[in-house]
TrEMBL record:
Biased composition (Acidic residues): 122-136
GO molecular function: DNA binding
Biological source species: Amycolatopsis eburnea
Gene3D superfamilies in UniProt: Nucleoid-associated protein YbaB-like domain
One protein family per Pfam: YbaB_DNA_bd
Record's protein name: YbaB/EbfC family DNA-binding protein
Domain of life: Bacteria
Keywords: DNA-binding
Compositionally biased tracts (Pro residues): 94-114
Keyword Ligase: no
Annotated stretches, region: Disordered: 89-146
Amino acid sequence: MSGPRRDLRVLQREAGELDARLAAARHTARSADQLVTAVVTGQAKLVDLRIDDRALYGAHAQKLGLSIVEAVRNARNTAKAVSLPELNALFGKQPPPPPAGAAPGPPRPAPAPEPVRRPAEPDDQGSFEEFDFLTDEDPRSGGGRW
């Protein structure tokens, strides 16, 4: 019975060729603020990351981490969208149907959520400057703290 073995060898060879193509492929994407660029392989491995100088010296340098993650995620999503049909074809699977109302093509990344700022809550304990932490006395009550 050489039939199934031959099919397995062919599948292994084709999988090796696809793996080599995916390793050689490059997919580039940027963050929404256009300050970070990531490059990944078709296997979604990060191979390059470029950060614009404006990101380091701008008013919002604390958001740099979010931009890095966003750029890498966008590049990996692109790599996945491009490689998935090839992987499905190799293993004889049909791709899942797109969600109802979805546009064809690679998925668009969701915009990064804006941080939520909450107003400061009033402090009902007062200032700690009034407390003497070396004694058990509470200056507000004139007696022991506990």
